[in-house]
Design a protein that fits this description.
28% of the residues lie in helices and 20% in strands. By secondary structure, it is of the alpha/beta class. Among the domains are: 1-85, no CATH class; 86-214, no CATH class. The longest helix has 18 residues, at 40-57. This is F-box domain-containing protein. Residues 36-90 form the F-box domain.
């Protein structure tokens, strides 16, 4: 086993290994004795699940290494468990010469301190299979130091015992300049089951590597596969193709015809308004084993041209993502471009399994691109996704992500309209009478007037289409301002006076109880007072909201929670609070 001194010293740089507060491991004295009684095998399983959860949330995080520094027993167990050291992440970084501040003429590529721990992690992992994630930001390997070069060589050579291997580069591979890379790739990777390559001309590097266990491939751009058809002749069950271009349809269909064993397929278009002609009978592709299909395109018609050429089982999970870029010349998206196909799929799903739309989410879908969208779910329990945007959800099932049988995401990068007509048109066209939960989140770019405009649209939609809502999830400082309006009445008499008469559960995330300038326990909270008034009024009128969940709210005190329980005055009322005042942990802008 390699000496752990360097890795231990690296861990002292807390700012480089601690990416989020929730990834820290704390051992409370009250539970230490009971934890010490757990057998080592069980602790290793718990540690491994913790590592997977951290990596799933933030790939670059090495904060999970703290499990080896909680106590002596944990350290001994962690160091002796090879599986805990098999998830390896590497990336190179550009660091500018300190002697020439602000000058990019003098730079060198170096790695973060933790990347230099790769050889030690390889040693600690023993003979266990590896999950390797390799990000190469530039092909100028001549600028690397000898230490970084050694790390890269060790990482590439580890392909022979890799279980999954992800290779991402933002540069271009030049065979003459980087011939050493081809020489490092082993002739056989007997255990490799998943290979992900992002960057031009990467696939030829692996052309001579025998991968008998390979079952999953992800390629970006997809064009690299058309010139190397042998690379996709494995009995693949998982295929992801990104940046598919206008002229790629014929090659794509030929590729799919050679892969009848596919179970999971993702196709992402690389440009808008791709001119794919209507299908001809000879173009049809049969994928009888397909379990999951995800199509992501930048317009409302191209995806349909591909979808109509596929013959898939009625039980296939279908996810459609239509992203309309803000700065590209894309025709307006119309509901009739996709609604008929989705209604047909939904009807077939209902007839076969009795499933229907249980949940609707309207929120920001990707914080990197500032998009907003509508999602549909057939999952009846929204607890796992109430406050998460869809960019954190996974297409493929894992321990930590559920996978709905039917899901649609429509995304717009531009957010100038509170609720775009296409969203409302689509929702009004869907059968939502059995929908039980609705999740609404802030639209990042919206400012003044957003709440008022969207509030009216949302109230009309709920009244017309969602009479059986039992759960309402509101997330964001602006969206939570609508809670009283959505919980209040419609101006009529009787049980139906309430907009959501059957509501039993309310989730509120990032609600502002007090602003930053008035946040002591003695300052009044108009938000709390108005919320409790409508909740008490509903309880008195027989429209009791039995459960309220507060998550990451601003300016909340324990006295507020106690006061809310006292105001409600019912022993069966469940008020849950995570104890977090977001003003303390998140910069307030």
């Amino acid at each position: 086993m390699a000496d752990s001194a360097y890795l231990d010293s690296t861990l002292s740089h807390g700012d480089k290994i601690t990416q989020a507060q929730d990834s820290r491991v704390l051992l409370r004295p009250t539970t230490q004795s009971s934890i010490d009684m757990l057998p080592p095998e069980l602790l290793v399983e718990i540690f491994h699940l913790h590592i997977l959860s951290v990596i799933c949330q933030y790939r670059e995080s090495y904060s999970w290494i703290r499990i080896a520094h909680v106590c002596h027993r944990w350290r001994v167990i962690a160091l002796a468990a090879p599986i805990l050291w098999t998830h390896i992440y590497f990336d190179d970084r550009i660091q500018y010469d300190d002697d020439h501040p602000g000058c990019r003429c003098h730079f060198k590529l170096t790695s973060s301190p933790l990347n230099t721990c790769v050889p030690e992690m390889l040693a600690r992992s023993g003979n266990a299979l590896l999950d390797v994630y390799f990000l190469w930001s530039d092909w100028n390997s001549n600028s690397w130091s000898s230490d970084v070069f050694a790390v890269v060589r060790a990482l590439i050579s580890s392909l022979s015992r890799a279980h999954t291997f992800t290779f991402i580069t933002h540069g271009c591979y030049h065979k003459e300049q980087d011939a050493w890379l081809q020489d490092l790739i082993p002739s056989k990777a007997p255990y490799l089951s998943s290979l992900s390559l992002t960057g031009p001309d990467l696939l030829p590097l692996f052309a001579q590597c025998d991968t008998p266990a390979l079952r999953g491939i992800c390629l970006s751009p997809a064009a690299s596969a058309w010139s190397r058809p042998r690379a996709l002749q494995h009995p693949l069950t998982r295929l992801r193709l990104h940046k598919v271009q206008s002229g790629d349809l014929s090659a794509l269909l030929l590729t799919l015809k050679a892969l009848p064993s596919l179970e999971e397929l993702t196709v992402r278009g690389g440009c808008a308004c791709m001119s794919w002609s209507h299908p001809h009978p000879v173009d049809y592709v049969s994928l009888p084993r397909l379990k999951s299909l995800k199509l992501a395109f930048k317009d409302g018609t191209t995806w349909l041209a591909l979808y109509e050429r596929l013959r898939i089982p009625s039980s296939t999970i279908f996810i459609l993502n239509v992203l309309v870029p803000e700065f590209e010349d894309v025709p307006d998206l119309h509901c009739d471009q996709f609604a008929p196909t989705f209604l047909s799929r939904l009807q077939a799903l209902t007839e076969r399994s009795g499933k229907h739309i249980c949940g609707v989410a309207y929120r920001s879908t990707d914080y990197d691109y500032g998009t907003t969208g509508v999602e549909l779910y057939t999952t009846n329990n929204p607890d796992w996704l109430c406050f998460t945007s869809s960019h954190t959800s996974s297409f493929f099932s894992t321990f930590f992500h559920l996978r709905p049988p039917l899901r649609l995401t429509l995304e717009y990068e531009s957010q100038g309209i509170a609720c775009r007509p296409v969203f409302l048109q689509f929702l009004y066209a869907l059968p939502l009478s059995q929908t039980t939960w609705l999740s609404v989140g802030d639209l990042i770019a919206e400012r003044d007037g957003y709440t008022t405009a969207f509030q009216g649209e949302l109230r009309s939609l709920i009244e017309a289409k969602m009479a059986n809502l039992t759960t309402l999830c509101l997330a964001g400082r602006q969206t939570t301002e609508m809670v009283v309006a959505l919980l209040s009445g419609k101006g009529t008499v009787g049980e139906e006076q309430w907009l959501v008469p059957h509501l039993t559960t309310l989730y509120l995330s990032e609600a502002v109880f007090r602003w930053q300038e008035a946040r002591t326990e003695h300052d009044p909270s108009p938000f709390k007072d108005e919320l409790m008034k409508v909740l008490v009024d509903r309880a008195s009128a027989g429209a009791y909201v039995r459960r309220v969940v507060l998550s990451g709210c601003y300016g909340v005190w324990e006295q507020d929670i106690a006061g809310m329980r006292e105001t409600m005055g019912r022993a069966d009322w469940l008020l849950e609070w995570d104890g977090v005042d977001s003003l303390d942990v998140i910069p307030f802008f």
